[in-house]
Amino acid sequence: MNKTNDFVGLNEFDDYAKKFGWLYDNSWPFKNQNWESYFGPGEFSGYQMLRQTSGKMVLIKIAKPEPIAVWSGQVLTYSDFDKMIREIKYFAES
Fold it and tell me: The whole model's pTM is what?
């Protein structure tokens, strides 16, 4: 982790997400935009975390006829990521 707590590049974000079990899966379309996609581990099965290079994030639940956004926000730092994980656990548990 760097001293500023900010993610330096997408690879650093990818590595941190992987520590929590989120697996990178290239580009994913959602709401007429392309996003970097991460599939969740066990407790987040059925969810995808979508990220843009700006740090904008959306957690979607895979549903038919189309995915549903259940959380969105900015994730620019390790602390932001940790806070997001705590918040989205609520959706996975309900």
Answer: 0.84
